[in-house]
């Protein structure tokens, strides 16, 4: 018999992030013919065609209180939808918001949680989730022993729904808050300007390390990134040296990314950095030290000075990227 799966959409600035479509793809595989529900919280939401994305039911909570992520309010709203839908599995993105919200919901409802999945096998009655362990050096298979349970999905790893468009039932949910709920309100989020492309959802990342040598040195990386439509990332070495903001840091204590193409410039390839990027589909390393460990994980290696190599790449890509 099919299952009911609830996806909690990942929304930023009123728009859905790609990982929501990836979660809807997973949800359809888990549902095995059952119903896929999606809960969307935000303010002045720009809703896509959820039928094409694989949802059967959409639960919309469009309220000024949801304009910024406020843990207590989001938690209450999501629990309200879970109680109405009674799903067997609830999917959250393994994003900044999802990592905070999923365990809070799971704890309140006494549910188990499987975190940061990168794949799922659905050919048996009970799905088997695949997740990285030991900072990405190995993968483990996890099975839930009771339902319902909560799962967080790593962005950029799973395919969106590609089946026939569905007819969607849309439900509007009005959540009421009492004084205790409103004891904390996030009034404004002041974001640092860290580039136009979201690092965790970027298809291409140009990343710089201590070899970039200065804040100004990063300009050659930004030029290449602009031509490629890429995001700029960094090693902790570069962030610690003050060359760029910590929001760009990739690695064990930074962001985990899985782009189609990762270009590492002047990064040695410490294990803590690899933990954040080694699952990238294609890795290109530019380093003047032929013994640098980054070359062990790179698909393509360029031994050379990044200040000579990167501008040449930018010039060549300019010729082919219209
Ligand atoms: P370096 O190791 O100094 O490497 C610089 C590289 O640039 C060298 O290989 C050099 O050959 C090359 N180079 C120099 N000049 C040029 C040039 N002109 N052209 C080409 N190449 C050049 N690190 C992270 O990145 N992310 C993390 O999340 C993270 N978390 C950590 C957590 C813990 C608990 C600890 C202990 C460490 C963590 N680190 C992390 C730090 C990590 O161990 C390394 O120190 C760091 O990744 C090194 O950064 P780097 O590669 O930029 O610098």
Question: SSE layout and pairings?
Answer:
Layout: E1 5-8, E2 11-12, E3 15-16, H1 18-31, E4 36-42, H2 50-53, E5 57-62, H3 71-85, E6 89-93, H4 96-109, E7 112-117, E8 119-121, E9 128-133, E10 138-143, E11 149-153, E12 169-172, E13 204-208, H5 218-228, E14 231-234, H6 236-240, E15 261-265, H7 271-277, E16 282-287, H8 294-297, E17 300-303, H9 306-320
Parallel strand pairs: 1-4, 1-6, 4-5, 5-12, 6-11, 7-11, 13-14, 13-15, 15-16, 16-17
Antiparallel strand pairs: 2-3, 8-9, 9-10
Helix pairs in contact: 3-4, 5-9
Bound molecules: flavin-adenine dinucleotide.
Helix/strand-derived class? Answer: alpha/beta
- The outline comes out as globular
Bound molecules: flavin-adenine dinucleotide
Strand count, sense and barrel status of the largest sheet are: 7 strands, parallel
Number of helices: 9
- Biggest sheet: strand arrangement: 7-11-6-1-4-5-12
- What is Rg? 21 Å
Which oligomerization state do the chains in this entry correspond to? single chain
The run of helices and strands is EEEHEHEHEHEEEEEEEHEHEHEHEH
Give the terminus-to-terminus CA distance.
50 Å
Uncertain segments of ≥5 residues (pLDDT<50)?
A: none
Beta percentage is 15-25%
**Number of DSSP-assigned strands:** 17
- The helix content, as a percent range, equals 25-40%
Roughly what is the average pLDDT, rounded to an integer? 94
Keywords: Electron transport, FAD, Flavoprotein, Transport
InterPro entries: DHS-like_NAD/FAD-binding_dom, ETF_a/b_N, ETF_a/FixB, ETF_alpha_N, ETF_asu_C, ETF_asu_C_CS, Rossmann-like_a/b/a_fold
GO molecular function: electron transfer activity; flavin adenine dinucleotide binding
Family: Belongs to the ETF alpha-subunit/FixB family.
């Amino acid at each position: 018999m099919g299952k009911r799966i609830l996806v909690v959409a990942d929304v930023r600035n009123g728009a859905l992030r790609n990982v929501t479509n990836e979660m809807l793809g997973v949800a359809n595989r888990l549902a095995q013919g059952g119903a896929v529900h999606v809960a969307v919280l935000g303010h002045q939401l720009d809703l896509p065609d959820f039928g094409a994305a694989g949802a059967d039911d959409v639960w919309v909570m469009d309220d000024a209180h949801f304009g910024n992520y406020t843990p207590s309010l989001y938690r209450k709203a999501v629990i309200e939808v879970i109680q109405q839908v009674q799903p067997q599995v609830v999917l959250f993105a393994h994003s900044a918001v999802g990592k905070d919200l999923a365990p809070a919901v799971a704890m309140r409802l006494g549910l188990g949680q499987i975190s940061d999945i990168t794949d799922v096998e659905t050919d048996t009655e009970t799905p088997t989730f695949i997740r990285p362990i030991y900072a990405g050096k190995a993968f483990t298979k996890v099975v839930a022993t009771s339902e319902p349970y909560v799962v967080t999905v790593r962005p950029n790893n799973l395919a969106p729904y590609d089946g026939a468009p569905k007819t969607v039932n849309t439900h509007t949910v009005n959540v009421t808050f009492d004084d205790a709920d409103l004891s904390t309100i996030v009034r404004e989020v002041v974001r640092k300007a860290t580039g136009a492309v979201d690092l965790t959802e970027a298809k291409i990342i140009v990343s710089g390390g201590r070899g970039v040598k200065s804040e100004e040195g990063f300009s050659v990386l930004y030029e290449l990134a602009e031509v490629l439509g890429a995001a700029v990332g960094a090693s902790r070495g570069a962030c610690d040296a003050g060359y760029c903001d910590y929001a760009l840091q990739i690695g064990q204590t930074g962001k985990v990314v899985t782009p189609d193409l990762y270009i590492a410039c002047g990064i040695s390839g410490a294990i803590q950095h690899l933990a954040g990027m080694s699952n990238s589909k294609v890795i290109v390393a530019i380093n003047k030290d032929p013994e640098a460990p980054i070359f062990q994980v790179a698909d393509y290696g360029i031994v050379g000075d990044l200040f000579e190599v990167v501008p040449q790449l930018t010039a060549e890509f300019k010729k082919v990227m219209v």
